[in-house]
Amino acid sequence: MSDHDILSDEEREAINAVMQEPEALPLKALIVDDDQGAREVLAEILQLHGIQCLTANSAAQALRSLAADKSIGLLITDLRIGPFDGLELIRQIRESERSALPIVIISGDADVKDAIAAMHLSVVDFLLKPIDSKQLITLARRELGLDPQA
After folding, report:
1. What value does the CA radius of gyration of the chain take, rounded to a whole number of Å?
2. Which bin fits 92, alpha (ψ -120 to 50), beta or left (φ > 0)?
3. pLDDT tens across the length of the chain (150 residues)
4. What's the number of domains the chain is made of?
5. Closest CA to 34 of 85, 103, 98
């Protein structure tokens, strides 16, 4: 390091390392529903609007996907799934290294108690089936950072 250098050798190395890192992968949505048709329809709707999706048919599969794929930036889950329900899935996520993950709940048979429990778990939104696809797309794009004005 010469007398006129502003950065130390360590700072210069750190900057070079950051500059050489590959670009971050685009974030994906993980859709969790034990109904295959519902999963496929939600994934297709989101993919048609530029949102990459993965799917899981159970809470256990969702947890494995979250542990394995750090590019998942949004969880969309049905409330009634197995082996444990969507609220328990969210509790486990909130206690994990992915605790800040944005989560949207979808449900066809939720009650006020479920909605209150979901809000206590800091979910982004609670959508009732049949899903308003425009609302879901808007939420997903905002939470994944795909809309610059959001």
Report:
1. 19
2. alpha
3. 455 667 788 877 777 765 665 555 579 999 999 999 999 999 999 999 999 999 999 999 999 999 999 999 999 999 988 788 899 999 999 999 999 999 999 998 878 898 888 889 999 999 988 999 999 999 999 999 987 664
4. 1
5. 85
Give the global pTM. 0.81
CA distances in angstroms from 86 to 71, 72, 74, 126, listed in the order given: 21, 17, 14, 12
Domain CATH code at residue 105: 3.40.50.2300
Q: Would residue 105 count as lying in a domain?
A: yes
End-to-end CA distance of the chain: 44
Angle value at C-alpha 50, between 49 and 54, nearest 5 degrees: 105
Strands across the sheet containing 28-32: 52-56, 28-32, 72-78, 103-107, 125-128
H runs (alpha helix) in the chain: 9-20, 36-47, 59-68, 86-94, 112-120, 133-143
